[in-house]
Design brief:
Layout lengths: L1 E4 L14 H13 L7 E6 L11 E6 L7 E7 H4 L4 H9 L10 E3 L4 E2 L5 H10 L1 H8 L17 H20 L7 E6 L5 H17 L7 E7 L2 H10 L7 E5 L6 H4 L6 E7 L9 E5 L2 E12 H10 L7 H11 L1 H7 L7 H14 L1 E8 L7 E3 L2 E2 L4 H4 L5 E4 L2 H10 L3 E11 L1 E2 L13 E3 L2 E3 L2 E2 H10 L2 E7 L9 E7 L2
Parallel strand pairs: 1-2, 2-4, 7-8, 7-10, 8-9, 10-17, 18-21
Antiparallel strand pairs: 3-4, 5-12, 6-12, 11-12, 11-16, 12-13, 14-15, 17-23, 19-20, 22-23
Length: about 475
C-alpha cells in the first residue's frame, strides 16, 4: 500500500496540522475491508476551497475492468475532523469493486474533465450572471480573494502602461509606430479594471504629452453579454476609445482575426483558471486520463426534488433543462415546478452547491493521440509526466487553447500579460491541491504554467512568471509572453 501526503507545507510551523488521526482511521478502515492492500493508494489532500466537488472520502478506480486494476482512496484532511472518517471510508470501500452502485444520482456519463457538465454550469453562471447576483445580493468580484481583481491595482496598471510607453516611444523615434494602437482585454469582467487602466492611461499620456490616447483602440472582450453591458457603462468616459466584443476566450481569433500582428497588449486577469481542464497522471509508469462524472448524493437529490415537486429520478433531467435554457426560460417552460425566475435560480444554486465529481483513471494509449488543444498533442506533457515518480497534473486545455490562439494577434513588440493562478514548477502538483474548486457559481483550476511556457517556447515566445508584485499574501502570479529576442 502506498500512502501519499500532499499538503507538505502544512505539516510544519505554528499551525501545523496533525495528520496522525486521519491516516490512522483510514488505515484502520482499509485493514477491516477485504480490498487487496497491495493494490491500494491512499492519497491525502488539503482541499483549500471551502466549496468544491469532492466528498471527504472517495475511491477512484485505476484501469477499471482490466487485470491491472488498482484503487486510489482519497481523503480531504481539511474536513476529515468533521466526520466519522472510519465510517465514511467503510461506506465507499464497500463499493470499491462497483462504485457505480454507490447511492449517487449521476448527471452524465463518464467523460474527460474538460467535457463535464460542471463547465456547462460555469457557462451558465456567466450567461445568467445578473440573475445569480440578484439572488445572492453580491457582485461576482466579491468572490475573488481580497474581494477584487488584482488587475485593478493602480501601481500594477501604471507599471504596465509605462513599459508599453517605452516601447511606443522607441518605435516612434524610428518612425515604426502604427497610427492605430490596439489593446485587447480578454475577460473584461464588470469593466472596473478597464476603467482603471484607461483612466491611468489618460493621466500618463497627458503628463508626457505623447498623444497616444487619441490613437488608442481598447477592445473589451468577454463571453457574457451581461458582463459586457455592465463594462460599457463603467467606461462611458472612454466610449470613443472602447469597443466590446463577445467571444469565446479559447478561440479569440474567430472574432479578432483582423488584428493579427497588430495588438501591443493582450491583458488578461482571472480567466485562464476558469476555462475547461482535464487532468492526466502517471501511475506506476503508465499514463492515465482522469475521467469524471458529475453526480448528486442521494439525500441532496431527494431534497432538491422535494423543493420543486418532482421525483428524485427527474432531477437530472431538470438540471439538463436548466443548463440548456437558463433560469428565466426554465421558469416559463415549467411553471408547475418554478413559480418564477427567482425560484429557478434557487434551484440552480441548490444544484451547484450539491454537485460532486466522481473520478477514475483510464489508460491513455499514446500521448501523441491525446489532444490538449487544437494543434497541441499530449506529447507536450511528457516532460512533466516523466519528471520522476507518480504524478497528477492539470492539462489546462482551455488556457492552452486560448494562449496558442491569442499570441498570433501580438505585434512583434507586443506582450500578453496575464494575472492568474499558475503553478510554476511541476513539483507543486505533488505538494498541494490545485483544483477544481468553486468560486461562487463558477469553476476554478490552477493553470499549468510550465506547460504554457513549453508551448510558448516551441512557438518562439519567451514566457516568464513572477509573483504579483503589488499585493502581499496573494497566490496570483503574473505571466508575461512576448516574442523571443
Amino acid at each position: 500500500m502506498l500512502i501519499e501526503i500532499r499538503p507538505v507545507a502544512r505539516l510544519r510551523g505554528e499551525k501545523a496540522i496533525d495528520i496522525t488521526p486521519a491516516v490512522s482511521e483510514m488505515i484502520g478502515a482499509l485493514c477491516e475491508d477485504s480490498v487487496d492492500l497491495a493494490k491500494v493508494r491512499l492519497v491525502c489532500d488539503w482541499v483549500q476551497y471551502k466549496h468544491n466537488f469532492r466528498d471527504v472520502v472517495d475511491v477512484r478506480q485505476i484501469s477499471p475492468g482490466t487485470s491491472a486494476d488498482q484503487l486510489e482512496v482519497a481523503v480531504d484532511l481539511r474536513r476529515a475532523k468533521d466526520v466519522d472518517l472510519r465510517a465514511a471510508a467503510r461506506e465507499v470501500l464497500g463499493y470499491a469493486d462497483r462504485p457505480d452502485l454507490l447511492p449517487r444520482m449521476p448527471l452524465e456519463h463518464w467523460t474527460a474533465g474538460s467535457q463535464s457538465c460542471i463547465w456547462d454550469f460555469n457557462a451558465l453562471y456567466w450567461k445568467a450572471l445578473g440573475e445569480w447576483e440578484r439572488a445572492t445580493g453580491q457582485m461576482y468580484e466579491s468572490a475573488l480573494p481580497g474581494g477584487e481583481s488584482d488587475a485593478r491595482n493602480q501601481a500594477a496598471v501604471r507599471d504596465l502602461i509605462s513599459d508599453m510607453f517605452r516601447i511606443w516611444d522607441d518605435l516612434s523615434e524610428r518612425r515604426s509606430l502604427p497610427e492605430e494602437l490596439y489593446v485587447v482585454e480578454l475577460g473584461v469582467g464588470n469593466g472596473n479594471q478597464a476603467k482603471a487602466w484607461l483612466d491611468e492611461f489618460v493621466v500618463m499620456d497627458r503628463e508626457r504629452g505623447t498623444d497616444y490616447y487619441r490613437r488608442l483602440h481598447y477592445l473589451m472582450c468577454d463571453y457574457s453579454q451581461h458582463v459586457l453591458d455592465i463594462a460599457r457603462k463603467n467606461v462611458t468616459d472612454h466610449a470613443t476609445k472602447t469597443s466590446s466584443v463577445i467571444l469565446d476566450a479559447t478561440k479569440p481569433t474567430e472574432a479578432l482575426g483582423f488584428l493579427r500582428f497588430k495588438v501591443f497588449l493582450v491583458y488578461i486577469s482571472n480567466v485562464y483558471d476558469n476555462l475547461p481542464c482535464d487532468d492526466v497522471a502517471q501511475i506506476g509508469g503508465r499514463h492515465y486520463l482522469v475521467e469524471t462524472r458529475a453526480y448528486l448524493n442521494q439525500p441532496d437529490a431527494e431534497a432538491i426534488a422535494k423543493s420543486i415537486s418532482v421525483e428524485p429520478a427527474e432531477v437530472p433531467n431538470q438540471i439538463s433543462r436548466l443548463l440548456r435554457l437558463g433560469p428565466e426560460l426554465l421558469a416559463e417552460a415549467s411553471p408547475d415546478n418554478f413559480a418564477d425566475t427567482d425560484a429557478a435560480v434557487e434551484f440552480w444554486r441548490q444544484c451547484w452547491q450539491a454537485v460532486r465529481l466522481a473520478e477514475r483513471y483510464v489508460p491513455i494509449q499514446g500521448l501523441d493521440l491525446y489532444e490538449v488543444a487544437p494543434g497541441v498533442t499530449g506529447e507536450m506533457l511528457r516532460p512533466q509526466l516523466e519528471a520522476g515518480g507518480d504524478i497528477r497534473i492539470h492539462v489546462t486545455n482551455g488556457a492552452v487553447a486560448s494562449f496558442t490562439d491569442t499570441i498570433p494577434l501580438l505585434h512583434p513588440f507586443g506582450r500578453l500579460v496575464c494575472h492568474d493562478l499558475f503553478t510554476t514548477d511541476v513539483m507543486q502538483n505533488r505538494t498541494g491541491f490545485r483544483g477544481p474548486g468553486k468560486y461562487d457559481g463558477s469553476v476554478v483550476n490552477w493553470c499549468n504554467g510550465p506547460l504554457l511556457a513549453h508551448i510558448g517556447s516551441r512557438k518562439g515566445f519567451d514566457v516568464r512568471f513572477a509573483p504579483f508584485a503589488h499585493r502581499k499574501g496573494t497566490n496570483i502570479i503574473t505571466m508575461t509572453a512576448q516574442v523571443r529576442d
